[in-house]
Amino acid sequence: MDLNLIKNDLLDKPYLSGIKIKNNESYKNQNYDVKIKCELKVGNSWFPIIIGVPNDWGQNLVDIYTALEEIPYIPHIDNKGKLCLFDLEGSIIEKNLLGILNQCILRAQSIIEEGISKENWNDFLEEFDSYILHLPRCKGAKVVMPDSGSSKKISYCPTKEIKKERRKNEPYSQYLKRTETNYYFASINTKDFKEWGYKSSVKNGLYLYSEAVDFIYPPRIDKSISVEYLNVIFQNVKITSDIAKIIRKSKEELFVIFEIKQPNGIYNSFGVIIKAPCFNMDSTLELKEKTEIIPLYVERLDERSLLNRTSFDENILSNKEYLLIGCGSIGGYVFNNLMKSGCKNITLIDHDKLESENIYRHLLGRDYIGDYKVEALRKFGERSLPGLKIKTVAENIQDAIDDCGIDFNDYDYVIAATGNAIVNMWINDYINTNRINTPVFYIWNETLDIGSHVAIIQFDKVGCYECIFKRDEVLGLYDSTSYCKPGQSVTKNVSGCSGTFIPYGSLISIQSSVLFIDLLKKFAEGRIEENIVVSEKGDDYYFKKSGFILSDNYNNQKDKISTIKGNEFKNISCNVCGGKC
């Protein structure tokens, strides 16, 4: 890097003064190719700053520091005095060092100016957690936060067992460090401890809900949390007999998780461990004496928080009941996408066991060979995510209805993922005969990965699943949406008739499941109202290589995804619905 070029460029900036530049310097334990010491003008004041240019400035920009003691308490500064300039997630950086340097300096100027005027103080609330994380002696707590607006008892334990015995020749300072608990798990529900795999001895603490009258900003990151800071939060906490009882019993330490509802509706959470607590509980909760307060950064494990990362809006899929028929290659990936979308209440139906021949195109691998597919998926789901309520029926759908009391009316959505047209036709006929209003999603793959299809069929709308099938005098019944030209045999077998299967890989099942989950969301949001069949083209290389012929549907489809509506595929000669015209 040319230091003279950088210095001359900076000297032209009227908002910088006292510029001193050095090569290969470190600052705050960080190495920089160039370190620049100067003063930055903000409004009518000058603030000392340090600018560090790393070797990888093209990926991570430059760092700018200010002295915490020289500047008012403002957002976007960490405990080392480094300003958070830009969110690099999804950003593209142009390879122009002088331009980047100037942009970062102007951004630092803007952050300080908006902080002093309190214009950006709402950012304190949006990024509350990060300030707690930078507090001195901060520890962590994984917390399943209650979904309620009232204070209550909460249970907690260390996240790992610590052997308290001092090792032979172990220095006492190292012993103290090794035996100190740095992470906790907490929940009001004792079942959560087992679900998340924590078996340590459980103690009682407090979950305190506080509706703030005035904004509660995070504490200063360069100082310990004060008694006065906590008392501002405590004064908005309602004291119950249960709360008072826990406080009186907590002689050595009190574990507290706060959830603060700010005046603008934002919720912030953090925790503390108060050593030897002494409270006044006459009218409001008040911590009386100067005591040691250890901050806790809260990692939320409750569903509403975890699902918040998947969508900008409230998850409209999570509280629905799903019936998934078929747990093979398609059904496995559909199940995975359902639970990852926050769907908890899923009933699985399939009479097959997972065999070794399945594992290369199924979600599950060899650990589950020999298990019924429904049970294998249940185990997989419960090991992956909390709060799932999976029911399983190891029967085919006909027997599940007759013997196990499965009623389609009990579900918000039925998903037929067998990939078997005969089974799908039976479901379609059953739905129409019994006039069941639950919408059904039929999902199936094409041979050799040339495509996938999803049909959304509602009993009271035009067109049904069987309408998709047309009749030819020579070919007989055939799928009118197929990408494979009718009349070709595309099945394989490895052990005679009993081992017949349609060849396709896991990627097409993944594609089908993604297509389904996208349509499910659109349907749930009311963006799809009529019956439709959606078809997505895949790669035709292996299909053609095997000597098969593509249908006109594939050749004439210009877009990757096509949609046909019920009034377009309805069949007035359909034996099931008569086209409902």
Automatic annotation (TrEMBL):
Any one Gene Ontology BP term: cyclic threonylcarbamoyladenosine biosynthetic process
Record-level Gene Ontology MF annotations: nucleotidyltransferase activity; tRNA threonylcarbamoyladenosine dehydratase; ubiquitin-like modifier activating enzyme activity
Entry keyword Kinase: no
Domain Prokaryotic E2 family B: 22-131
Domain spans labelled THIF-type NAD/FAD binding fold: 317-480
Keywords: Nucleotidyltransferase, Transferase
Top-rank taxon: Bacteria
Coiled coil: none
InterPro entries in the cross-refs: Prok-E2_B_dom, ThiF/MoeB/HesA, ThiF_NAD_FAD-bd, Ubiquitin-activating_enz
Keyword field contains GTP-binding: no
Pfam families xrefs: Prok-E2_B, ThiF
PANTHER family tied to this protein: TRNA THREONYLCARBAMOYLADENOSINE DEHYDRATASE
Protein name: ThiF family adenylyltransferase
Protein source organism: Wansuia hejianensis
